[in-house]
């Protein structure tokens, strides 16, 4: 866990709890096949954010890692088997999905890494923004024509509450303290995921003080929407956050610079990994 808090809020009604309930139908029930443009590429409309999900299989398909670069293969070789399996799945799936948007073979995609470690595609493909997150056996990534950040966290029954003073704004701490004990873990991870989604979208890593990002808006109003907007002033601008229900026992959120973005849910399957 690096910095991913997604936090339900509230007293007497927590908008994050309600968001989780209203958005909690199974991911599969919400997903739809990607639209195709006349050129055969995956269509990505203005303001659209495609949310892709993949579950890490117990064993990798034989060709799953064939599209990885030499550097990626070397990185995977240095990892433990469990970490390597997650890394290979995540990078391979991301490459294959991006290939469908930019019309380029997955194995030939090159990534530019900026000074903060955030990857992007070079040249005309740079218009396609993406972000990836992984927790447990779940992998998610967001694809858009706008800058995006996504985060997913498996909800632990024993969250690291000791870091609260270092990462939560005062109002968020107050909201958390008002909740019954049984609701705090989900609230904590909900906040963390929203904060992490924003910082990943901004792309400045740990250079950002998470206490300056307050995602508890709407608590006092008992708001039931699964989204909110925050303004980080100065260079970071305004970001629009959406709670997303990926799987039971996980918190997840996506941040986008586009105020009127629409989310489309996609599922990445093993057989698709062998078709591109």
From TrEMBL:
Gene3D superfamilies, sorted: 4'-phosphopantetheinyl transferase domain (3.90.470.20)
Keyword Transferase: yes
Keywords per UniProt: Transferase
Domain 4'-phosphopantetheinyl transferase stretches: 148-254
GO cellular component: cytosol
Recorded superkingdom: Bacteria
GO function terms (MF aspect): holo-[acyl-carrier-protein] synthase activity; magnesium ion binding
Gene Ontology BP annotations: lysine biosynthetic process via aminoadipic acid
The keyword Cytoplasm is assigned to this record: no
Cross-referenced Pfam families: ACPS (PF01648)
Family statement: Belongs to the P-Pant transferase superfamily. Gsp/Sfp/HetI/AcpT family.
Listed name of the protein: 4'-phosphopantetheinyl transferase superfamily protein
Species this protein is from: Notoacmeibacter ruber
The organism's taxonomic lineage, starting at the top: Bacteria, Pseudomonadati, Pseudomonadota, Alphaproteobacteria, Hyphomicrobiales
């Amino acid at each position: 866990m690096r910095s991913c808090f997604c936090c339900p809020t509230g007293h007497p009604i927590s908008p994050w709890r309600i968001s989780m309930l209203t958005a909690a139908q199974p991911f599969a029930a919400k997903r739809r096949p990607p639209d195709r443009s006349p050129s055969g590429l995956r269509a990505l409309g203005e303001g659209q954010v495609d949310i892709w999900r993949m579950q890490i299989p117990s064993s990798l398909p034989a060709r799953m890692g064939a599209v990885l670069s030499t550097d990626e293969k070397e990185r995977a070789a240095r990892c433990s088997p469990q970490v390597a399996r997650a890394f290979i799945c995540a990078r391979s799936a991301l490459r294959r999905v991006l290939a469908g948007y930019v019309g380029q073979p997955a194995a030939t995609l090159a990534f530019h890494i900026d000074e903060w470690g955030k990857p992007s595609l070079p040249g005309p493909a740079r218009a396609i923004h993406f972000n990836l997150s992984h927790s447990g056996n779940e992998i998610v990534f967001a694809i858009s024509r706008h800058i995006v950040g996504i985060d997913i966290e498996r909800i632990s029954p024993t969250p690291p509450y000791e870091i609260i003073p270092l990462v939560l704004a005062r109002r968020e701490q107050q909201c958390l303290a008002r909740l019954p004990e049984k609701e705090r873990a989900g609230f904590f991870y909900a906040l963390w995921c929203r904060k992490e989604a924003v910082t990943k979208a901004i792309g400045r890593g740990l250079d950002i003080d998470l206490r300056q990002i307050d995602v508890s808006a709407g608590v006092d109003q008992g708001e039931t929407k699964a989204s909110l907007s925050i303004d980080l002033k100065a260079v970071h601008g305004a970001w629009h956050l959406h709670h997303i229900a990926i799987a039971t026992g996980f918190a997840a959120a996506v941040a986008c610079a586009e105020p009127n973005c629409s989310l489309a849910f996609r599922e990445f399957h093993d057989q698709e990994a062998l078709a591109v």
